[in-house]
Structures are given as C-alpha cells and as structure tokens.
C-alpha cells in the first residue's frame, strides 16, 4: 500500500483516468463489434428475402394449398436458419424443421412485419433457451394470399465469439493497466523526488544556510521553482552582503563626524585659543552635526518608506519654482567645483504633490550629479511636457557616468557605485519610492565616461487660478 502523499495521489489519479478511458474504449469497441455482427446477419437475411421475392411473383399462383406452402419454404429456405410461414395473426402454418406447426408466435418481429417493415427480434428461444435472431417479412402472392415469412437463426456462435473477444479485450486492458501502473510510479517519482530535494534544500535555507543550492537539471515548472529558489538564495546573500557593507559604510560615515566633533570639543574645552580658532572649531562642529543629522534623517526616511509610514502633505506644486530653489540650495557646493547649474524651463508647470519631498528628490539627484561631475562642467535641469498629462523633469550631467553593469542596481538600497565618495547608498532608493508615491516613475540613462541623465516623470494636475487656495491633504 502506498503511503499518503503526492506520490499516492498522482498514481491513483493517473490509474483512474487511464482505467476510465480504457473502459470506455473497450465498451464502445465491443458494442460496435456486436452491432456489426448482428447487423451482418440481419442484412444477409433481408437480402435473401428480397432475392426470393423477385422469383416468387413468377413461380407461385393459385389457391392456398399444402403444396403452395412447401413451395414458399423451397423459395425462401436459407442455410443454418429455421424458416417459418405464419399467418398475419402469428399462427405458424409450416416450418422448415417440421415441428410445432400449430404454434402461435408472439414476438415483436411479427407485428412489425404485418405493419409493412422488416421485423427483427433478438432473444431466447422458448424451450431451448438458445440465443436467436428472428427476422420477419410480409409476403403477398398474386395479390390474394398474404403470409409472414419468418427466419430464426441461432446467435450462440456469434455470442461465443463475442465472449472470447471480450475476454481478450479484458486481458489486453489488464496488461495495459499493469504497464500504466508501472509508468505512473515512474511519473510520480519524477515529480516527487525533485520536490523532496527542493524541500530539503529549502529547509536548509530556512536555517540560514544560503550557500546550499538545488542541484539537478529539472524541467518545466519544477525547474522554474528550483531556479527561483536558487535565485532567492543568491539575492539573500547579495542583500546580506550589501547590508554588511552598509553597516560598515555607515559606521565609517558616523565615526568621521563624531571624531571631528569630539576632537574639537575637547580642544575648545581646554581653552587658550583666540576667537578665530574658536570660531573655526565651532563651525566644524556645526557642519559635522548637520552631516550627522542628514545621515540619520536619510535612514529614518528609508525606514518609513519600507514600512509604508511616510505621510505626504499634498498640494499644488510649481515645478519651476521648486527647481529654482533646488539650484539655490546646491549652488554653494557646485561653486566649489566651478560647476555651472543651468535651468531650462520657460513654462510654468503645476503638479499635485508634496513640495518638500519632491525637493528632497531633486536635491538628491543634483547633489549626485555635482558629486560625480568634473570641475568646470555643467549640470542642466529641465522640465518639459510629455504627451498626455505627464511632466518630465530631467537632470543631465557630463560626469563619470555609470557602467552598464551598475546601472541596473544603482537604485537598489545600500548600493554604492563608488564607496569612497561616502553616503549610505539610500538616496536613489528613497527618491524612487517618493516619486512612485506621487504616481510617477524614475528613469536613468548613462554611459560610462560621458555622463548621466535622470528623468523623473510625474502626472500633471489642472492649473488652478492664482487666487484659488492650495488644497492640502494627508495620504
């Protein structure tokens, strides 16, 4: 007995389907063979009747007489059958066997013959209990005498042949079922064994052993499942590595300003410095404190986005004004590298969004452009209407660019193209999620050594009249 499980279900279902199919095929086949044999006997008798009737109208004439009935027997006689001549009431007048001439026939073939058709009846012969077929036909002699010609032939031999054929069919069906059972076990094993292997490897992965892999050249859905689990393990390892790199990076990012703050604090506490040196130290402390606050806020923003807890204060946003503010905020940093910030936006565009969060996105994009652009270069910010009701804000630089291998991952959380430039690797990930919260999308095109173009596509809103108040709501 097969124990409960998928193997048992597959085997039982497979056997059941094949068994039902075989049963239907054999039943239809045997019924067709039986019908063919029985129809062949019936057709042979009806053909003989038709031939005999053609000769009958030329050979027999006169009144009814025993000689006339005998002539009927001679004309319609057929090998291996009993021929009976009946009245329309079913009374037997004469039989080719010579027995029971006074018997009345009550089977259904006689009324059918009297009705004008060729009657047919299959059943058991009274007395002998033999399987027979009776075929009856109404015959007219010279338009005056009417008789029912009835043929009775044994079907025992045909039934015996059909029985033997049935037994052979059952034997063949049993052999087929035996083969099906063997194949069903093979089929079940081909599905169950890979699943058991996948389950075992998955259990190892659940325990943290992500270096374990599903081995085997599996096909179709099982192969897809194995590939997906292996890919999942690779992604978990990559995510863990990114997380470890992030922890290492953020530790360094936090340690550097903290070291500066601690060093200058101890220095200033010791006293003895002129006002200029004290001012310099306090400036460094303030700058590094702002840097720490920025790092912490970036991590908090990412945490809120991951938990779907970020709230947007929605209102009408003038994109041109927002880009101008972005340039003013980043101008001092760009000026240090003699980078020119250009704004190309002649029209006024309005969207429905959170101005502060959108400004955070554009600041991050422009800051990245400044960070990775060479001195004496330019960064262009532009806004243009797309087809339909969409707006595209483009930040284009001529910096170092991003390789094709990194372009697909640059928006992943914690990923940094150049770890030496600092940062958490969360800026683009946060920016993308903020854009998506506004119903937009962020696209990047870059070529190594030639620069990068980042496009933020946002849905536009109907322009409101200047006197209309800005509607705000929390999402």
From TrEMBL:
Q: Where in the cell is it found?
A: Cell membrane
**UniProt GO cellular component terms:** plasma membrane
Q: How does it sit in the membrane?
A: Multi-pass membrane protein
Enumerate the Pfam families for this protein.
HAMP, HATPase_c, HisKA
Cited PROSITE patterns:
HAMP, HIS_KIN
- Read off the SUPFAM superfamilies from this record: ATPase domain of HSP90 chaperone/DNA topoisomerase II/histidine kinase, HAMP domain-like, Homodimeric domain of signal transducing histidine kinase
Q: What taxonomic classification does the UniProt entry list for its organism?
A: Bacteria, Bacillati, Bacillota, Bacilli, Bacillales
- Superkingdom of the source species: Bacteria
Which residues span the membrane? Answer: 12-33, 162-188
Primary residence: membrane
Which EC class does it fall in?
transferase
- Tell me the ranges covered by the Histidine kinase domain, including all copies: 249-462
Q: Which PANTHER family match?
A: OSMOSENSING HISTIDINE PROTEIN KINASE SLN1, TWO-COMPONENT HISTIDINE PROTEIN KINASE
Q: Report the EC code(s) recorded for this entry.
A: 2.7.13.3
What residues does the HAMP domain cover?
A: 189-241
Gene Ontology molecular function terms on file = ATP binding; histidine phosphotransfer kinase activity; phosphorelay sensor kinase activity
Q: Which reaction does it catalyse?
A: ATP + protein L-histidine = ADP + protein N-phospho-L-histidine
Protein's name in the database = histidine kinase
Entry keyword set = ATP-binding, Cell membrane, Kinase, Membrane, Nucleotide-binding, Phosphoprotein, Transferase, Transmembrane, Transmembrane helix, Two-component regulatory system
Q: What species was this sequence derived from?
A: Paenibacillus riograndensis
